[in-house]
Amino acid sequence: MTQTLVHRLKYKGEKEVGVYLGKLLGRELSESEFFCDADVLLPVPLHPAKLKKRGYNQSEVIALGMEKSMKAKLDANILFRKVHTSTQTRKSRYERWENVKDIFGIRNPHLLENKHVILVDDVITTGATLEACAEILLDIPGVKLSVASLAYSQA
Known about the structure:
Layout: H1 2-11, H2 15-30, E1 40-43, H3 48-54, H4 58-68, E2 73-74, E3 79-81, H5 93-100, E4 104-106, E5 116-124, H6 128-137, E6 144-152
């Protein structure tokens, strides 16, 4: 069931599925002692060229739903993708890591100082993208970083 819904979000353009799943995820996380104190939701960003082609960022749509059922606020502007990369779909773990190394940047990092940040992705495959984002976020003083995703791949 989850696989079908994520597929509809990613490949059929059904953004409302992402918002709905994000609300459910946010509700579950807000009841957890590990996530209930989160301040900021940061979706994994797309490069502007990919965003224009796709029309929306799945991770941002999920985070929008999460925001509706959590006290944390969505910020889709702080974390950004500096480099347009090729798709990760058919890459090995090492190739994925190489593909995303040093491609993310951060605007106004002081806004995240001493905050609990949840990094939101749609599907975790190898974790390379999340690791690349986390690398720069964890350089910010006092940041507590958590990760939330709808699904993970066993590939």
